[in-house]
Each structure stands twice: as C-alpha cells, then as structure tokens.
Amino acid sequence: MSDSSALQASRAITGATQSGDDDDLAERLRAFVAARPDIGGTVEALRIDKGRRSAGASSGTVLFDVDLDTDGRKSTRRLVFRYDLGGAFFSQYSLSPQFTIMQALHARGLPVPNALWLDADGAVNGKPGLFMERIEAIAPSTMPFNEGPYMAVDAAARHAMLLAAARTLALVHATSPEGLADDYFARRGGSGDYLDREIAWNLLELRRTIPPADAGAKAEFYRDIRGTLETVGRWLTDHAPRHRVPELAHGDANISNFMYGEDGRVIALLDWELSHPGVGEADLAYQIAGIAHFALLAPPVDGIPTADEMIAAYCEARGKLDDWDFAHVLGEWRLAVFASMGMSRLPPELEDVERSYWAATRQRLAALVPGIAT
Question: How far apart are alpha carbons 203 and 224 in whole angstroms?
Fold first, then answer.
C-alpha cells in the first residue's frame, strides 16, 4: 500500500462530514456578521474561500473575508465560521460550550483562537455555529507528515515544533478548568466520578459507531475492534486514579491541531470540542500515539521526536508526570476509538488502509493492557 492511499483516506474522512456548497451561505454569513455591533464598520462584501479543507472531521468549517468601510476607511477582516454537523461524527457534540471555553482561555492568554460570536440558534447554517478570527499561518492537515506546516520546514525545525506542541499541552494542563464551562463539564458523560464519565463518553461513541449497522463481510473485523476497545475500557475503569483533582484536558491534542508562527512558536491550539475535566498526561499520550499513527503510512520523515523526547519536553514545562501508566493507556485508547470511528467511514477501496491502521493500533494497545492477543 502506498502513502498516497493513506492521504486519500484522510481526505475521505475529512470530507465525509462536511456540508456541500450552498449558494445562499455567503448571504446568510453576511447578514449575521453585518448585525454584529463590534464588526467594526459597514459590510461591503463577503468572500468565501472555496479551497479544500485539509483538516477537521467533527465540525464544518468555512473560511471567509469581510470587506468593511469604517467612515471611509477600507479594511478586511479574515474570519472562520465553525458549525455543528448534527452528530455526523460525535453524537455527544455540543458547540456552545466550545465557544465559552475558547473565549475564556483566550482571555487567560493561552494560544487559542479569538472566538467572537456564537450563532446559538443556527441562523447561518441551521445548526449552532461560532465565529472566530482567522489565524494567519500555514493551515494544519490531518496527514501532517505528508503536507502542512511540519513539512514546510527542515528536520531540525520540525523537531522543535513538535516538542513545542508537548510544552503547549503542559501550559493547558496548568490552567484551571473552573469557570470555563462548569455546567457542561459537570454533565459531560453522565454522572459519577469525572474519570468514569470520560470513559463512558468514549464508550458511547464507540458503541454507536462500531460496528456499522451493515457490517457485512467486515463483521468479524469490527467485532475485534470493538471487543479490544471494550477490554481496554474495562482496564481503565479498574485502574482509574480517582483520587486526582481533575485538570483541563484538551481531548484532541493531535499535532494536526496546532498552528505555528514563522519562528516555530505555537500560536494556536485548535478544536476544543473534546475538552473535559481529566488527566492532563493523557493528552500527551494521545499526542504521542497520534505521531505514531501519522507516521505509519507516511513517507520517511526526519526530525520526528521520540516518545521519550516528547515526555521530557512536557515534564520540563509542567514539572510533573503523574499516573503515567493510566494516562498512557487512556490517551492511546481515546485515539484508537476515534481513529476506528473515522476509518469505518472509508469507502471499500480503502479497506486496506483501515486494516493497516487497526493492526498497528492493536499492537500498541496489546503492549500496554493484559488480555489483548497479539
């Protein structure tokens, strides 16, 4: 199998949850934006960027520019509209808390996009959406070792950027989750201890998606995926460090959610829809597992840090690495659940990609959790 098959699969997953073109979307965007008292002038024109999105599977994304007139002074604002896809990927998706979380973290000085307005009633696209300032940087990709910011630099810069991603997680985890979305965080995943609720949240998504309703010839394959991930879920329930005070976890700390300035500094951590009270170190494990996932079918790439280097960078910034045995499994497992969900949406001609990724994922989990046959 060629790395082009993996790239094709990534684009299929990303595109599967995006809405089609809507001739009236620009006008609805214009009407909403023009009514904002803080837009900064009279809206003269709005232009949607029709280019291909190379990242994002759980939300719809529209990039657009707004031309303004402010007492004769012309200017342009570059904005992003992110909108709910109605459970096309995650059934427990909720966009409104993302807005409040992003606003609060941006105000606290974290590298989070500036969320401007919430379309809670779905005036623009029929479902809730949020508007934010556009980050001026190379767009991330769901195949970061094929295209995007990590491939626009040399090996040394790539190495430094990836370590910066680990250090940014330490900054997030040192930030209190209190005051961000307290009611939402308290309800996320049901009732009980925050770790049990997070495990339950992921299991619900797994059970909804794997296996698909019509598994056909792949029924046995999907039974293996679900059975393995259920086994790991039980291990996590049995080993959860419930004595810990919950920390702010990003929840989707893949390196494809980071944007960088020209100096290699992290200027934005994107996609806060999976943020939750959790074990911060699990974000790091998820990130490390994601690097292995992305590198699996990519061409050989120099400058990728080892897992030990990522851990060392995190520890240097955070000053601790607690409950790593549990956090390591939790991070690996969460990525395995989401990757399996995404891969199950691939067309039949890309089944070899799905099976290759699962084989590697299963091997990683078997090295961590007893009872998984290799």
Answer: 15
